[in-house]
Amino acid sequence: MKLFQLVRCEFIKNFSVKRLIITLIVLFLCCFGLIKFEEFYGGGGSSSEGLSINQFNQSYQNAKKKYADVDPVVIDGLFNSYEKVQPIYEKTYSMIQDTTEDAWQKGCLQSYAFYVTQYEALKQVKNNYQNPIIEKYLTKEKIEGDEYYGITISIDHYYFPALKRFYSKPVEEIEKELIFLEENISLLEEAIQKNAYYLSEQFAYRYLNFCAEKRDESINRSEAERYQYIITNQIMDKDDFRAINARQYQSLFYAGDRYEIPTLEDYNKGLVNMTFNNYEASKRYYQIMAKEDLKQKKIIKYSMDHELKHDLYLKGDGVDNFYLTSKNFMNLGLHLGLVIMFLSAIYHAGIVAKEHDKGTVKFLLTKPIKREKILLSKILYLILDTYLLWLLGTLIMFFIVGFYSGFGDLFTAKLIVSHGEVVEINYWLWYFKELLICGIPICCFQVVLFSLSTITLSTSLTASIISILTVFSFMIWFLISQLGLTFLSFLCYTPIPYLDYWMVRYNSRYYLESIVRENLFSNYGIIIGLVVAFICTLVTIFIYKKRDIKN
User: Fold this and answer.
1) pLDDT single digits (tens) 337-379
2) HSE-CB of 474 using CA atoms within 13 angstroms
3) Is the C-alpha dihedral spanning 68, 72, 78, 84 positive or negative?
């Protein structure tokens, strides 16, 4: 009997409608759970308090009562600020309502209120230059330092610190800033009225240059590129992926030297990542992270230049702006290895033991088939079943992601860095290549499951051991790298930590810190898994060939 016929018999023998239904339910729940977890933990959306026009108007009335007896020389600019901001405030409020989502219009309105108040404070100081009444009031009252309060807080929190700051400035400096604000503050008002994000960025860019000129400095190149990109492309919404790409690019360059290779002196002073046992390990970590950082920058720059979405995961990398594409969610399908290993532990822990329990092994051995061929057919079945289950999980994930986040992004190119250059490749070719690679440690573990079932002839014992090891594998990188439990380091030389191999492929920080600590290389998990699988197969065949089949 040919090997493939034996494999076919295994599929027929192990198939049942009940098992298929249970598998579909488990995979569906796991796929949906992964998506919701990614949306909760990896999403870039933030929340803020809702705007309240009533609170703003109330603060205006309170200011009128509170400062009714203050000399107009001091206070007129404050009331002028309220009156200028109020209609713009009402227009913005009616547009975005009492939203709890972070709206760029709210930030723009805060900027408008802030700079209008600065302008009125400047004008008040200029019109009453070095007036002792202002100085007397500022001396008598306790004026806090400049604080950027939300728009729902009264404008006097903007006004009085500005009055204090500008009072002692030379009149030429006051006039220069007044002229700038007078010419440019209308951009913020226009941004709100036209609902155009790029106009608010245009004001910010001009003000940045204005301040840099005053200090006789140049602005950061990546910051300039961000503003120029958004302005040139006239991006209307802050949440437009192109705008987010630009802000991500700037954020990564702001932190450009965070992975600079440390000196021995820096290490001894504790100025670098101190989770490593020695300087060389710390140095290797920074070298690896610098390479990964450069890849991210190249991909984001390419995304900007070609107006494409990427599927990088940047949360926790010093970047405050995120978006999640359908690819980000679809990539989670590569984490299904642990689920599939659990299902195998339940379904196949008795792949050999049950043959003995039911007595079918006697019938099987009466056929002219060598024992090693029987065993190899079962191993091959386990490997094929692993990939078939994973493909089934991928199909379920595809439809959930498509209905949840849209199918469009799933048929666009995947951006990768190859030989130092960013290239576009077919997303699904990339996905299935990664699935094939990530499945190797799972298949190796299937051989371990098979060996336990063959040697112990106990379904419950095999299922228990494999289940425990599967759960434990999920924790090992975290325990070693993040908690510094170095006494567990020996486990890195076993197949146990590599079940979720997408963590390795995805360059998880846990994984990177762990391999640096142990001086391993990225493909070590696959190599150790294959070696263990080969040894287990040989030992299992040797023992089983010597076994006297009595039942």
Assistant:
1) 989 998 998 898 888 877 776 666 666 666 667 878 888 889 9
2) 12
3) positive
In single-letter form, the type of residue at position 243 comes to A
Instruction: Report how far apart, in Å, the C-alpha atoms of 542 and of each of 2, 291, 371, 375, 535 are.
Output: 21, 46, 10, 11, 11
The CB density around residue 413, as the number of other CB atoms within 10 Å, is 15
Please compute the mean of the pLDDT values over residues 286-312 and round it to a whole number: 88
Indicate the helix (H) or strand (E) that contains 421: strand 421-425
CB 517 within 8 Å of CB 497: no
Rg from Cα positions in the chain: 32
Report residue 204 CA to chain centroid gap. 27
Structural domain boundaries in the chain: 3-43+325-546, 53-219
How would you write 84-112 as a 3-class SS string?
HHHHHHHHHHHHHCCCCECCHHHHHHHHH
Beta carbons of 515 and 491 less than 8 angstroms apart: no
Sign of CA pseudo-dihedral 222, 226, 227, 233: positive
Q: Which of 473, 457, 482, 460 is nearest to 540 (CA)?
A: 457
- Digit-coded pLDDT (tens) for 181-190: 988 998 988 8
Q: What is the Cα–Cα distance from 150 to 134, expressed in whole angstroms?
A: 26
Say what the pTM is.
0.82
Distance CA 428, CA 407 (A): 13
User: What are the distances in angstroms from CA 512 to CA 402, 477, 481, 507?
Assistant: 32, 9, 8, 6
- Could you identify the residue written with the tokens 């590569």? 334
